[in-house]
Amino acid sequence: MDWKIITWYTGVSLLLLATLMAVSGLIAWCTPGDESRTALFLSAFLVGMIGFYPLIFVKRGNHSLTFREGNCIVVVAWTLACLFGMLPYLFFGREFTPINALFESVSGFTTTGASILDNIEALPRSLQFWRISTAWVGGIGIVTLFSMLASGADKSTLSLSEISNMALDSLARERSGSFAGRMLTAYISLTSITFISLKLTGMQWFDALTNAMSACSTCGFCTRNTSIGFYDNPAAEWVLVVAMLAAGVHFGILFLAFIRGKLSYIRKSEIIKVFLSMVSIAIIIITIDLMAEGHYTSFWTVLRDASFQVASISTTTGFATRDTTLWPHLCIAILILCSFVCGCSGSTSGGIKMDRAILAMKGISRKVKLAVSPKAVSLVRVDGKVKTDAQVSDAYGYIFCYLLIMFFFAAVNFALGLDFTTGVTASIACIGNVGPGFGDVGTMSNYAAFPGILKFTSLIEMLIGRLEIFPALYLLRSASSRL
């Protein structure tokens, strides 16, 4: 691998980070009494200087990026973003010890939305904006954003190294050269529409903007201690339900459907239809169970709360209007199942992804069919496209690795003192970038009480989940082969 070009592109990613810090610092500058302006401007200066160094002193050359180099840039850029992203928190101080600052930074960039803050509203407005802007950048992808500055083959290699093969397969008939650009256009458009809609429901502009950014990145960071429940605004909740579900759909398909006017892409997408069907069934079951258990007396209120929480968990957003740890066991079980599969590939959602789940189920169905009728001709099709045995095996492999990592970190949680419910659901929430779980990490709780070692293992799990496992494994394999 050519480490010069890797260093050069990593410097570009740090400059993007420094720019966001400077924007947050300007908000602090314009806000009287904001105590975080020094922390933000100092962080922007330090990160900017480090980012400029390779651009000035390292010769990029004419070498075109290879897959291994692109993959290395993805992992290194994400890791450095999380490390340098902790600086504003660290310089601000107070509850932001080094491990707390790193945890909050990783949680934001990976769009997990888990937090160590007991009093979010005590943070200065500019630091709140920085916190949520990390999630918004992490939602579309750090490398995807700065790949727009690259040219030719490098642009394609960078964006395709970060975007999963499942996302690319969904639009195999479309030109891949502008794939990242289409996703970014849809992402910005969805965020803008959500912001305007929330403003029309009566939210203040800052709350509307930050909640729109958080919903479209499916992070769930909020500027209020009680999350969206603080506003008690049914109209805003329904706007966010639509925004979260839209953010759980392939952004390339959203681009073609709403910007290019090709709505047939949504109507014909088996993956989207199964995803929305799963969400609808979960809402119906939870609504019926809550009514049957006597938790609500108003049907429309229970429908609203069930719809919001299912949309939030199934897209790995993590917003909350109610404390779901108090809900009946069946409701909790349904929400945990929703936090496994989650949204579609090419979206900002985490989890296994609906595409892989459908592909794996159809692969199992094919094996059963061939076992009963060995001479039968059976093909695996998703969205009308025939999938190869290698693609089906990839889905099996990813799901196996996903569950293995989830069980491993759950065991670590048990070993370090967490109870069963908290340990399992915290692991599910971190690997899937969901945020809230159940037990001590429910929708109205946080990770502040975790010991430092558990915060560290949890943030490692978040990063592995956001990178979709294999990029990290590829880098480890490349590094071990050189030893």
Proportion in β-strands: under 5%
Rounded to an integer in angstroms, the radius of gyration calculated over CA atoms is 22 Å
What number is the mean pLDDT? Answer: 87
Helix content: 55-70%
Structural class: mainly alpha
The biggest beta sheet reads: 2 strands, antiparallel
Along the chain, the helix and strand elements come as HHHHHHHHHHHHHHHHHHEEHHHH
Which strand order do you get reading across the main beta sheet? 1-2
Total number of strands: 2
Oligomerization state? single chain
Structure characteristics:
single chain, 483 residues, mainly alpha
Can you characterise this structure?
With 483 residues, the chain is mainly alpha-helical. The model has no long low-confidence stretch (mean pLDDT 87). The radius of gyration is 22 Å and the shape is globular. Strands 1-2 form a two-stranded antiparallel sheet. The protein contains 22 helices and 2 strands. Helix 5 runs parallel beside helix 21, helix 16 (299-314) packs parallel to helix 17 and helix 18 crosses helix 19 (389-415).
